């Protein structure tokens, strides 16, 4: 039986889907995570330190571990996975390449130097945000270099807004953390799901994001695939993402990228060495009906995944927005949302009673709505209709 090490950060949404996929493939799983799992035996669990991925990987490798593949599941796990797979001589992304994807400033530098279209950008270590903003031009985007899920990403249209944005981001990441100031790229945004084999990129899905993401915050809402963009634009997206992976140095396993399409060009905003986050992968089925997680596991274990053609029809997900910061009291209207024609499921992932933060401080969605339809416009309409049934009650209490 093949053995698979799954790096599952404790904040992941995806443990059940990856574990189900491993079962379907007939692979034995060893879980690597930061928190002790008392129910798992030492053969099935290793404790790791994701704050120091290299040292932690070295320690695990020195102690000896017998696995056939290592898969980093979420953003926080990918660098550890790359280091460990490198030490164990398993197919992997070079840790340096993965480290580049984890650093938004380094990503900009590498992509810009390679000649890809990129926003103008400046990394600011202390007070000088206004100067940086005026040199990249307004509107601009202020962001932390190493957060995810659009946490701490704010658009600013003038010097007063840039000061306010910087203060707000620093309240999240700390006074001394560097800030990236970049020019705002207008245009439609897509998310791209791909799989790399020895540096060659295969596109698994392109998702349109039909809600305008114009700021000031960039909480995501709807993803729908297949993309409604013209085939020739999709070809340009594919080639821009392939080029970005190549110059960053990614070679093996899943990639998730975001790009904006302007009149002239495709701007790759980000490439991550992992698959899509949250529960969004549930929108995807391939070939004879296998999940994205199963595709990734098969790929890592060199088991033929069969056809990687996405199942026919359109599919979409809405990340249910967090309307305000506070304690989640109730989500009403779930039955109505679930019985909307075309809705495949509604999952509320924040427990009732839990404190939740709105963007830009937040990074956890209230939950997910899934829809299927004959075409993408219909899938989008179903998601909106289902969302309109939900009534979210949040008791305002300060987040901390
Ligand atoms: N320079 C930019 N121009 C326009 N929109 C941007 C820019 N940078 C970020 N965004 C928006 O913010 C979102 C999150 O930014 P990103 O840098 O990808 O951070 P994260 O890692 O948190 O996803 C993007 O998907 C996009 O919608
Ligand atoms: Mg992003």
Description of the molecule:
With 400 residues, the protein is an alpha+beta fold. The protein has 11 helices and 19 strands. It has helices at 15-25, 53-63, 78-87, 95-101, 104-113, 129-136, 159-173, 231-248, 292-300, 334-338, 376-389; strands at 3-7, 28-33, 45-47, 69-72, 121-124, 140-144, 153-156, 179-183, 188-197, 200-208, 222-225, 253-261, 266-272, 314-320, 326-332, 343-348, 355-356, 367-373, 391-395. It has a 4-stranded parallel β-sheet with strand order 3-2-1-4, with helices on both faces. Strands 5-8-6-7 form a 4-stranded antiparallel β-sheet, with helices on both faces. It has a 4-stranded antiparallel β-sheet with strand order 10-9-12-13. Strand 9 (188-197) and strand 10 form a beta hairpin. Helix 1 crosses helix 9 (292-300), helix 2 (53-63) packs parallel to helix 3 (78-87) and helix 6 (129-136) packs across helix 7 (159-173). The longest helix has 18 residues, at 231-248. 45% of the residues are buried. Bound molecules: adenosine-5'-diphosphate and magnesium ion.
CATH class of the domain at 3-100: Alpha Beta
Basic shape: globular
Elements, N to C (H/E): EHEEHEHHHEHEEHEEEEHEEHEEHEEEHE
Largest sheet composition = 4 strands, parallel
Please report the number of helical segments.
Answer: 11
Average of pLDDT:
95
| Small molecules held by this entry | adenosine-5'-diphosphate, magnesium ion
Low-confidence stretches: none
Amount of beta strand: 25-35%
Numbering strands along the chain, what is their spatial order in the largest sheet? Answer: 3-2-1-4
Query: What is Rg?
Result: 21 Å
Strands, total number: 19
Helix content: 25-40%
Instruction: State the CATH architecture of the domain at 3-100.
Output: 3-Layer(aba) Sandwich
Structural class: alpha+beta
